[in-house]
Write a structure and sequence with these properties.
Strand content: 25-35%
CATH architecture: 2-Layer Sandwich
Oligomer: single chain
CATH class: Alpha Beta
Helix content: 25-40%
Strand order of the largest sheet: 1-2-4-3
Low-confidence stretches: none
Shape: globular
CATH superfamily: TusA-like domain
Order of helices and strands: EHEHEE
Largest sheet: 4 strands, mixed
Structural class: alpha+beta
Length: about 80
């Protein structure tokens, strides 16, 4: 999946992946996609919840070698 911007939030603990994702999302235009990489297991729930309440859409989420990867489309 093609992302407009990639955010490396690996090694950051809650709530920093969401804080960084919000900041990165502010730089995107509606419809663009943010790819987030994080090792924080809490992000499995936190990022989709934040995206939903912020009007964004999680297009896909997968886990590779302990890294969670999210593709979030700006609403």
């Amino acid at each position: 999946m093609n992302a407009t911007k990639v955010l490396d939030a690996k090694g950051l603990a809650c709530p920093m992946p969401v804080v960084r994702a919000k900041k990165a999302m502010d730089e995107l235009q509606s419809g663009e996609v943010l790819e987030v990489h994080t090792t924080d297991k809490g992000a499995k729930n936190d990022l989709p919840a934040w995206a939903n309440t912020s009007g964004h859409t999680v297009l896909e989420m997968k886990e590779e070698n302990g890294v969670l990867i999210f593709w979030i489309q700006k609403g």
